[in-house]
């Protein structure tokens, strides 16, 4: 079964990336309303606030790849996932679908590109419409977009449910009648029903129990093989990402700090943030050990530190880190890191 | 190791659909069931009035002014026993109340329904579109709600003139804002949920997302507000008619019946105002009892 | 070794409309002085209800219906609400997953902490403030004097949890019950809090019950571990014993499904099926339907067997053979 990994590397090299992000940014602005402006005039400490949720991210994903996107809260990984999935417009930069800017596509092509990219969400309770039956949740979009003839509808829905590991006998039921793991399977069946090629998994197993997590992760891996899928797997859980990703991207406060093949990241992490993240992960092999810690808190994205965002917490920070934003540079084949320390060596 | 084994046995038993659970939880309150029972009787009586009422109070041929102001229980000239007495025109009060209920209920429910359609659509739009659309709609709502309801309704009726249709229009204008605000509130919460994002991912058109995904999930609070607003509309219509600005005098609603007997209250002929008042009270209280309990049942915060 | 707390055959049931849910059904364990017990289980296993039962915070329709919770020779299951209030927050403290369960959003941190001190001890306000400041310092909050004047919303999630822990520490309790206190936190922040808690447990001699679904967290923190499934402890023992050589098929499955225990890129070992509904548990072993080893013997209810020194499992077919290999 390890053929899953081998087979990919052979096919990917030639063609263009399935998804490419160029200088993608997303800002959230909190404008002051009338009352706010008035309060400001009167000297209240309010101001218009801007959060750079995603700050000039470049990333290309080849067909068949599994890219793990890791980061802590506020790093912008979910925002990035939503821009890739086409449900949140970027503030700046472009998303290329098979080499074409998605904004330059005509409506039919744009719809096609949107359907080819689907998303699996974190919360198996909030991600299903509580007032729809499973067959409608799964079958609505294929029916609406004419992907399935009216006569074949029932068997089509059955097939989607079975593929996600659900008994089609339950298709008349409502989401609340299912357990967390089963609901996540319904969400997967819904996404697969529109025949996507690319799937964004946003913390798709984070809300599940350990034993159910393994089931869903296995399902993801099986489906990838069966349907030749490409994944952007967003997670805060490094062990999950390590297990199924080919390549790992680490984000911190809106920026990519490191990007490398999975083995590289876990064996030879370069960026100090990645190193501290790896050391902070509790391991089941550990026994009564002293937990190593990264100093300091995650700064507020409203007011990120200057220069390298990680410098206040970094054990190796020097003057340059406080003023200059480090660029993402290739330090080994396929291994990128944004750290000034690499210039010193 | 393969994953082809299907997940069997859902957690909840099959019978437990959301609707059935709602019904069984509603039925758990004796007071609410009592309210529902009383209200159902009132509706049936109103519906069947032409067949069960002793006389048709709108048919002047059946009314004899000589029977005016008969006490409850007296037998009139036409041989009818007037169990609730008659008014100054000689109309049978029981029949008047039955027919009056028809008007009151039609006006109340009809205006609430139209106001609900208008308000819910605007509220939904405000929540989903956001920005300027939201601001304009919600400032209109604020404006509407800052006016005393009675005053606004009086002004509208003074402009439009009397008549059942005009009363309905006036009530819609003063009530829609409640629905708009309610729907916007719950739609703002619901639209941030992931199933809306999922629907966007599936490239479904906005209209479909609004009415098939968002609206059904905003219904519970709307039902609660709707129930209470029906009661409010009935009371408001009664008030307007009492003040002489509502329904025409030939087709009296409960409010007008009360007004008719008002001047005789102190001369001992209490029944002309009293019984229509009781009917109005019972109607409104029964609706409110249902509404209060509905709020408990449909409030997700009170769920365990 | 003296025990701080001994729980014997605890039973907490919820009397719902749909039937009686035996959330905790005969749980027994002992927490030694200065020891950390990891109480591990998935959702619905009864781990949190066990914690709430000890501190007397089970809400209706739930009720402790049987068993003993022995603390200093007293049975906490039988004492009055007033006596419980005296112990709670004083001798026994609880830390919740959501620190806002402890913190009042509209009061300044110093107000809350000083009130907490004064609630159980007769000291003047200045001493109380000192104690509050020391407690904040102990959990690693920088410039505690300044932070005391803040409101909870001015803290980040990790800092709030630290404040909640500081409040729990104010009276130097003998026992702290922590219910998934780091689950909602980021990895680096979780690491910081675990480090602080570990230090505190070692220096103050406070006993700790750490309730979590995450085996990896208790692996590095706890002395003993108890694994719960469907309201019962299915395996207990020393951390190394249970994690290195698990006996119960459920524990074996849980540990096996952790990604780092699997070869990269290969299917994870998984436990089939899902947690049974507590409303209609089948007779016998509750794990039967998901267990590869189950046979007709498992239709009987297994007892918690002493299978190795210091390690017990509720199973007729434990994984004993692995120890030889």
From TrEMBL, chain A:
PROSITE patterns, alphabetized: ABC_TRANSPORTER_1, ABC_TRANSPORTER_2
Entry superkingdom: Bacteria
Subcellular location: Cell inner membrane
Keyword Transport: yes
GO molecular function, one term: ATP binding
CDD domains linked to this entry: ABC_NikE_OppD_transporters
SMART domains attached to this UniProt entry: AAA (SM00382)
Domain ABC transporter: 19-278
Record keywords: ATP-binding, Nucleotide-binding, Transport
Membrane topology qualifier: Peripheral membrane protein
UniProt KW Nucleotide-binding keyword: yes
Coiled coil segments of this chain: none
Annotated family: Belongs to the ABC transporter superfamily.
PANTHER family: D,D-DIPEPTIDE TRANSPORT ATP-BINDING PROTEIN DDPF-RELATED, TRANSPORT ATP-BINDING PROTEIN
Protein name per the record: ABC transporter ATP-binding protein
Organism: Sabulicella glaciei
Lineage: Bacteria, Pseudomonadati, Pseudomonadota, Alphaproteobacteria, Acetobacterales
UniProtKB/TrEMBL annotation, chain B:
Coiled coil: none
Stored InterPro entries: BP-dependent_transpt_permease (IPR050366), MetI-like (IPR000515), MetI-like_sf (IPR035906), OppC_N (IPR025966)
Sorted UniProt keywords: Cell membrane, Membrane, Transmembrane, Transmembrane helix, Transport
Domain ABC transmembrane type-1: 101-291
Keyword Protein biosynthesis in record: no
Transmembrane segments: 31-53, 103-130, 150-174, 214-235, 270-291
Localization per record: Cell membrane
Topology of the protein relative to the lipid bilayer: Multi-pass membrane protein
Family the entry assigns: Belongs to the binding-protein-dependent transport system permease family.
Record-given protein name: ABC transporter permease
Organism listed in the record: Sabulicella glaciei
Lineage: Bacteria, Pseudomonadati, Pseudomonadota, Alphaproteobacteria, Acetobacterales
UniProtKB/TrEMBL annotation, chain C:
Cited PROSITE patterns: ABC_TRANSPORTER_1 (PS00211), ABC_TRANSPORTER_2 (PS50893)
Residue ranges occupied by any ABC transporter domain in the UniProt entry: 5-255
UniProt keyword annotation of Transmembrane helix present: no
Organism whose genome encodes this protein: Sabulicella glaciei
Top-level taxon of the source organism: Bacteria
Matches recorded under NCBIfam families: oligo_HPY (TIGR01727)
Keyword annotations of the record: ATP-binding, Cell membrane, Membrane, Nucleotide-binding, Transport
Entries under InterPro entries matching the protein: AAA+_ATPase, ABC_Ni/Peptide_Import, ABC_transporter-like_ATP-bd, ABC_transporter-like_CS, Oligopep_ABC_C, P-loop_NTPase
Protein name, UniProt field: ABC transporter ATP-binding protein
Main location: membrane
Cell location: Cell inner membrane
One MF annotation (Gene Ontology) recorded for this entry: ATP binding
Topology in membrane: Peripheral membrane protein
Family: Belongs to the ABC transporter superfamily.
Keyword Secreted found: no
Pfam families registered for this protein in UniProt: ABC_tran, oligo_HPY
């Amino acid at each position: 079964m390890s053929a899953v990994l081998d087979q990919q590397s052979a096919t990917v090299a030639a063609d263009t990336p399935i998804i490419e992000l160029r200088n993608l940014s997303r800002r959230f602005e909190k404008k002051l309303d009338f009352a706010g402006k008035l309060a400001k005039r009167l000297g209240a400490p309010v101001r218009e606030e801007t959060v750079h949720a995603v700050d000039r991210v470049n990333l290309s994903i080849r067909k068949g790849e599994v890219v793990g996107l890791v980061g802590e809260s506020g790093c912008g990984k979910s925002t990035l996932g939503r821009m890739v999935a086409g449900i949140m417009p970027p503030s700046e930069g472009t998303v290329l679908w098979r080499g074409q800017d998605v904004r330059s596509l005509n409506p039919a092509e744009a719809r096609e590109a949107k359907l080819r990219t689907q998303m699996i969400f974190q919360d198996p309770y909030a991600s299903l419409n509580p007032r729809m039956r499973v067959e409608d949740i799964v079958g609505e979009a294929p029916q609406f977009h004419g992907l399935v003839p009216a006569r074949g509808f029932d068997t089509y829905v059955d097939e989607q449910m079975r593929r996600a590991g659900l008994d089609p006998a339950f298709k008349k039921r409502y989401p609340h009648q299912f357990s967390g793991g089963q609901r996540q399977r319904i969400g997967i069946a819904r996404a697969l029903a529109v025949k996507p090629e690319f799937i964004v998994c946003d913390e798709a197993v984070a809300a599940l129990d350990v034993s159910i997590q393994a089931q869903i992760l296995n399902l993801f891996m099986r489906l990838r093989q069966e349907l030749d899928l490409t994944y952007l797997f967003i997670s805060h859980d490094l062990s999950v990402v390590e297990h199924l990703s080919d390549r790992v991207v680490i984000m911190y406060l809106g920026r990519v700090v490191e990007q490398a093949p999975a083995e590289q990241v876990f064996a030879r992490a370069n960026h100090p943030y990645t190193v501290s993240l790896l050391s902070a992960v509790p391991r089941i092999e550990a026994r009564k050990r002293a937990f190593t810690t990264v100093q300091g808190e995650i700064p507020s994205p409203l007011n990120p530190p200057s220069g390298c965002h990680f410098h206040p917490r970094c054990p190796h920070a020097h003057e340059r880190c406080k003023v200059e934003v480090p660029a993402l540079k290739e330090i080994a084949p396929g291994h990128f890191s944004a750290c000034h320390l690499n210039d010193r060596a | 190791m393969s994953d082809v084994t299907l997940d069997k046995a859902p957690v909840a038993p099959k019978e437990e659909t959301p609707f059935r659970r709602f019904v069984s939880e509603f039925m758990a309150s004796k007071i609410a069931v009592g309210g529902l029972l009383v209200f159902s009787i009132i509706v049936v009586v109103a519906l069947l009035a032409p067949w069960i009422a002793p006389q048709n109070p709108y048919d002047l041929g059946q009314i004899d002014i000589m029977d005016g102001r008969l006490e409850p229980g007296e037998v009139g000239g036409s041989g009818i026993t007037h169990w609730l007495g008659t008014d100054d025109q000689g109309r049978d009060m029981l029949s008047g109340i039955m027919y009056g209920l028809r008007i009151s209920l039609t006006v109340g429910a009809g205006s609430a329904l139209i106001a609900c359609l208008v308000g819910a659509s605007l509220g939904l739009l405000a929540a989903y579109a956001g920005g300027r659309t939201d601001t304009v709609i919600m400032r209109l709502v604020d404006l509407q709600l800052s006016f005393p309801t009675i005053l606004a309704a009086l002004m509208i009726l003074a402009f439009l003139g009397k008549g059942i249709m005009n009363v309905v229009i006036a009530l819609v204008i003063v009530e829609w804002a409640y629905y708009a605000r309610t729907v916007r509130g719950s739609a703002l919460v619901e639209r941030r949920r992931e199933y809306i994002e999922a629907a966007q991912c599936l490239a479904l058109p906005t209209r479909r997302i609004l009415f098939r995904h968002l609206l059904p999930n905003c219904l519970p609070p709307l039902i609660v507000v709707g129930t209470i607003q029906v009661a409010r509309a009935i009371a408001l219509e009664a008030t307007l008619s009492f003040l002489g600005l509502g329904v025409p005098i030939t087709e009296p609603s409960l409010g007008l019946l009360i007004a008719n007997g008002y001047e005789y209250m102190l001369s001992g002929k209490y029944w002309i105002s009293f019984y229509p008042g009781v009917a109005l009270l019972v109607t409104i209280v029964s609706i409110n009892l249902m509404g209060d309990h509905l709020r408990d049942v449909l409030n997700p915060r009170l769920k365990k | 070794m003296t025990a701080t707390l001994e729980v014997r055959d605890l039973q907490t049931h919820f009397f719902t409309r749909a039937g009686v849910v035996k959330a905790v059904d005969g749980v027994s364990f002992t927490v030694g002085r200065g020891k950390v017990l990891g109480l591990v289980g998935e959702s619905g296993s009864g781990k949190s209800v066990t914690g709430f039962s000890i501190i007397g915070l089970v809400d209706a329709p739930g009720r402790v219906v049987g068993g003993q919770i022995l603390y200093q020779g007293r049975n906490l299951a039988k004492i009055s609400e007033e006596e419980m209030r005296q112990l709670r927050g004083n001798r026994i403290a609880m830390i919740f997953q959501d620190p806002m369960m402890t913190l009042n959003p509209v009061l300044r941190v110093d107000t809350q902490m000083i009130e907490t001190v004064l609630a159980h001890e007769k000291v003047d306000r200045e001493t109380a403030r000192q104690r509050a400041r020391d407690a904040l310092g102990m959990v690693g909050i920088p410039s505690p004097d300044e932070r005391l004047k803040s409101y909870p919303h001015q803290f980040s999630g990790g800092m709030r949890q630290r404040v909640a822990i500081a409040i729990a520490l104010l009276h130097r309790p003998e026992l702290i019950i922590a219910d998934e206190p780091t689950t909602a936190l980021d990895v680096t922040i979780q690491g910081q809090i675990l480090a602080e808690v570990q230090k505190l447990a070692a220096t103050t001699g406070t006993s700790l019950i750490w309730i979590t679904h995450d085996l990896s967290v208790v692996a590095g923190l706890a002395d003993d571990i108890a694994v719960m499934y469907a309201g019962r402890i299915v395996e207990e023992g020393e951390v190394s014993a249970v994690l290195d050589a698990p006996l119960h098929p459920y524990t074996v499955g849980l540990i096996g499904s952790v990604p780092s225990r699997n070869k990269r890129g290969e299917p994870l070992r998984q436990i089939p099926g899902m947690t049974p509904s507590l409303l209609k548990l089948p007779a016998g072993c509750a794990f039967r339907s998901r267990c590869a080893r189950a046979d007709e013997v498992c239709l009987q209810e297994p007892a918690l067997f002493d299978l190795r020194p210091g390690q017990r499992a509720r199973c007729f077919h434990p994984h004993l053979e692995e120890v030889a290999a």
